[in-house]
Specification:
It is built from eleven helices and ten strands. With 381 residues, it is of the alpha+beta class. The protein folds into three domains: 112 residues, Butyryl-Coa Dehydrogenase, subunit A, domain 1, CATH 1.10.540; 97 residues, Butyryl-CoA Dehydrogenase, subunit A, domain 2; 155 residues, Butyryl-CoA Dehydrogenase, subunit A, domain 3, CATH 1.20.140. β4 and β5 form a beta hairpin. The two termini are 29 Å apart.
């Protein structure tokens, strides 16, 4: 596969980086991540109105741009570089899940709501048996269905106006519902994590009554693995941005810091570390855009689900390690000050560590790749 950005994609990359450099600098990130809402609503409104990133994947019929996964990856990579503290990931993940649902008035209304800037989050897993395990049980009763259970690590769940909830019934059949957080029996709790720049929440449901009008997919089992694969590609884009920013700020620091009457950038050990970081990020970036191309091909019916999963597994394993390695090595290159609040590298380390385990660790991804190669299976919890 020969890959190169088009002129439009290069322009998208440049404008994304320029916008975030101005609007999501270190001070803005720190302020937003420690605020009550855990993000800056004004910045999110500006993104939605001026940049329209939340509408990249949404079809034109739902007021979106109808672009592809390469364009989405470009923006999310830039967002990772800037540690964007906004619900872009959750909105994009929800868009991907909705695109997999059968076409309906409710589905299209939700896609249009995301394009308008509403925060909609996917509540999918309780992690009891991995990321594909469902913790919400659907029980039919009279003319309604009751949802009970929980989901953990829901991105920006506390800020969501709607929740997309995956549930399983007594026979093991999965379904996807739209739930209003204000409904009786729904409790959404902010979950403190190491990474303050991406808010997480836990969702608890106790006998939440939902009607057929809230049903998005009554056979959602086939959606679980594609949703996970596509979500992992979105995370990878963020991780590549984190890895690149960690390299850039570490190189800049070593050019300024002096020891023994010369900058530490001239030390051979530092040069080797920087070279290793460069190799990590470029390898991860190549796999990211390969996976994005496969995602576009999968939506067009030109690639199999196995190819999509394989691309996501490879990219996730490589990018998780690249982000964690680069941020950790960056702290070492900064010396003792690297872990202090004064320097931003520690924020990137926290993001890298949190995303390393989100939706599966690198070892789990490699195990899934091996299963595909040797056993003919692709499932990864």
């Amino acid at each position: 596969m020969k890959f190169a950005f088009t002129d439009e994609q290069r322009m998208l990359k440049d404008t994304s980086q320029s916008f975030l450099a101005a609007e999501s600098n270190s001070s803005a990130v720190r302020t937003a991540s420690t605020s009550e809402k855990t993000y800056d609503p004004q910045l999110w409104s500006k993104i939605c109105e001026d940049m329209y990133w939340q509408g990249i994947l949404a079809p034109e019929a739902c007021e979106g741009l109808g672009l592809g996964w390469v364009e989405m990856a470009i923006v999310l990579e830039a967002a990772g570089e800037a540690l964007l503290t906004a619900p872009l990931f959750s909105s994009t993940q929800s868009t991907a899940a909705l695109l997999l649902c059968p076409q309906s008035a409710m589905r299209d209304a939700l896609l249009s709501a995301i394009v308008r800037g509403d925060v909609i989050s996917l509540a999918m897993s309780d992690q009891r048996e991995g990321w594909s395990s469902c913790g919400v049980v659907a029980t039919d009763k009279s003319n309604t269905t009751l949802l009970s259970g929980s989901a953990r690590f829901v991105p920006f769940g506390a800020a969501a106006s709607k929740l997309l909830v995956v549930a399983v019934d007594a026979l093991g059949a999965h379904s996807l519902w739209v739930v209003d957080p204000s409904q009786e029996g729904v409790v959404v709790t902010h979950t403190p994590t190491m990474d303050q720049t991406r808010a997480m929440a836990s969702v608890s449901l106790e006998n939440v009554a939902v009607s057929v009008d809230q049903l998005l997919a009554d056979d959602a089992q086939a959606l679980i693995e594609p949703i996970l694969a596509l979500s992992r590609i979105l995370v990878v884009a963020d991780q590549v941005g984190v890895a690149q920013a960690s390299l850039d700020m570490s190189v800049d620091y070593t050019k300024e810091r002096s020891q023994f009457d010369r900058t530490i950038a001239s030390f051979q050990a530092i040069k080797h570390k920087a070279a290793d970081m460069m190799l990590k990020v470029e390898s991860a970036r190549s796999l990211l855009y390969y996976a994005a191309c496969v995602a576009d091909a999968w939506f067009a019916g030109e690639a199999s689900i196995e190819a999509l999963q394989e691309a996501a597994f490879m990219a996730s394993s490589c990018a998780s390690e690249a982000a964690f390695f680069n941020a950790g090595t960056g702290i070492q290159m900064h010396g003792g000050v690297g872990i202090t609040e004064e320097y931003d590298i520690q924020l990137y380390f926290k993001r890298a560590r949190a995303t390393e385990s989100f939706l599966g660790r690198p070892a789990e991804m490699r195990e899934a790749i091996a299963r595909q190669l040797l056993d003919g299976g692709a499932a990864c919890n």
